[in-house]
Amino acid sequence: MDSECIESLIGAVGQDIIGRTQVAEQEQGRKSEALSEEMMSHHAQIFYLCLGFCKNAADAEDLTHDVYLKALEKSAFLRDTDKLKIWLFRIARNICLNHVRRGRFIRLFFQDYSPPRAEELDPEFRMLQSEQLRSLKEALFRLPLRQREAFILREYGDLSYREIAETMKIKEGTVMSALSSARKKIIRYLQGEKPYGTR
Length: 199
Known about the structure:
The protein has helices at 3-40, 43-51, 57-74, 84-101, 123-141, 145-155, 161-168, 172-190. It is mainly alpha-helical.
């Protein structure tokens, strides 16, 4: 085989490698874009989950931003894209709990940020709502951590029992038990019974 044939062969192989590399890069780009879109489809749920661990919407937005930054940093380690939702909520849960443990945020019951109705502008109505909200805050803040987490993931994150179990790495039956206990304690507290302790 003469030098011209060898050079031609090398050139063809090189072009093939370049072509395959470009195709792989394009495919990786499409996968990354699809992954980002899938993550963003859970943005509202992540925001409400974060809201469950902090005092206002602004702080919840900051936490949500941190969650997505961390998720993007670790996206290369996600092996099973079918588990993306659980993986994302685990990141959110860990970030929120780290902030809570450092004492940076206080627990707040879910708030509705839609424009107020006419009756809500009435001072007496707003005072009643404020009292009810404060009681709910107190009741929820007194819950044991596992019950509080399960409650937030269910009522804020809108996760199923199975998804909560996977996120918290506990059995589904334990989730159901924690939620049942949390709801009963909240009801008893709101009915004026003796406050339950925390742990």
